[in-house]
Design a protein that fits this description.
Length: 380
């Protein structure tokens, strides 16, 4: 399928796709039609006036799993439409959009009129126990994260794309993941809604939680349950939405940029462009070969690097607004419980268990990082 200056090729049976330049796609068609590597190489030289490294080209195809091993049978390509397509159409129909807008608009009006419904770091402390607070936030976010990923999946299913929602992990943290590789098989203009559907879900979920907090009397006191709990979950959802604008990561917003700007691997190219620029300022040799970059990525990276910087500033702003105050309050609460609580009292145990809950994951991450560093040293 033509995709701007490139051509999208892939295997629907294993749901893997790649962007090839037009001449590379033509060369692939020659091989697919039955030409040998030597014949395809000669054809390319006659057609484009230059030689092609067929060994390297074939290796690329093998890495993309576009070449089957001898005796390997291809998985059958699904001919019927994927399930949940009707639900996906309903979820993004115009009545549904009116409902989403109504919920978000009502929540915004409530936040403008009622100060305690506005996002602030104190909302996280919905219960006196630090341990219950952290456990409540951890498990309470699961429905919202699932809703985020389900909206991604439904937006793809409405197009007939066989999306998959599964449970995965990032280091020690369990996460829901939606695989949208099939979006490469649909026109570019149809990809934006599936990419942005998760952010729409976060806005609706945050707004719904805010409305529920108002309905359940969150203003009755700092620990008014369940209203205070809903406000805490609304704030955590808002922070997940803010995370999408950390442009130095491969977020949903980044995927929209890549799609709109016809890029291939803008993230890695921008990182290498930034590293080369820093080395040049220090009068050192650039560590990355710029000839390896896709021409479009190289062109866009020259200004996208400033969005990288904005993403870092945005992260610092989020830390200053929420991260640091919450961390200071939690740590001071732990210290207070450990120093003033009677040994093995409820307050003392709350401080001990919270300390373990916070620092054990950090120790695990540090151990993983150290292990990888040692492995790189041995390999080098």
């Amino acid at each position: 399928m033509s995709d701007g200056p490139d051509v999208i090729v892939g295997r629907r049976d294993i749901d893997t796709y790649a962007a090839f330049p037009a001449d590379g796609a033509e060369l692939l068609r020659r091989l697919q039609a039955g030409a040998s590597a030597d014949e395809a190489g000669r054809w390319y030289r006659e057609r484009y006036g230059e030689a092609v490294d067929m060994a390297d080209f074939l290796q690329t195809l093998r890495e993309l799993k576009f070449v089957r091993s001898p005796g390997e049978q291809g998985a059958p390509v699904a001919t019927e439409q994927p399930g949940w397509q009707r639900l996906g159409r309903i979820a993004f129909s115009w009545p549904a959009w009116l409902v989403y807008l109504g919920i978000c608009g009502f929540a915004l009006c409530l936040m403008l009129r009622i100060p305690y419904l506005r996002p602030r770091y104190e909302n996280f402390f919905f219960v006196p126990s630090l341990l219950l607070m952290e456990l409540g936030l951890f498990f309470g976010q699961v429905p919202g994260i699932l809703f985020h990923e389900a909206m991604h999946a439904l937006a793809g299913r409405r197009l007939g794309v066989p999306t998959r929602l599964r449970l995965g992990n990032r280091l020690h943290i369990l996460v829901f993941e939606t695989h949208l590789n099939g979006l490469w098989s649909v026109p570019r203009r149809s990809r934006y809604l599936p990419l942005l559907a998760g952010m729409v879900a976060d806005l609706v979920w945050c707004s719904l939680l805010t409305v529920l907090a108002w309905l359940t009397g969150a203003g009755a006191g700092p620990y008014a349950f369940p209203g205070a709990f809903f406000l805490a979950l609304a704030l955590s959802t808002l922070l997940r939405l803010a995370w999408q604008f950390y442009f130095y990561l491969r977020t949903d917003v980044y995927q929209v940029f890549v799609t709109a700007l016809h890029c291939v691997d803008l993230h890695q190219t921008t990182k290498e462009h930034l590293a080369n620029g820093i080395h040049r300022l220090l009068r050192r040799a650039a560590p990355y070969d710029e000839e390896r970059w896709h021409p479009r990525d190289r062109q866009v990276a020259r200004w996208y690097v400033y969005l990288f910087g904005f993403g870092y500033l945005f992260t610092l702003g989020t830390l200053g607004w929420i991260g640091i105050p919450v961390t200071v309050k939690v740590l001071s609460g732990i210290v207070t419980r450990l120093l003033t609580g009677v040994a093995f009292s409820t307050q003392f145990l709350d401080g001990c268990l919270t300390l373990a809950l916070d620092f054990v994951p950090l120790v695990i991450v540090a151990a993983v990082v150290l292990r990888r560093w040692r492995a790189r040293r041995k390999a080098g």
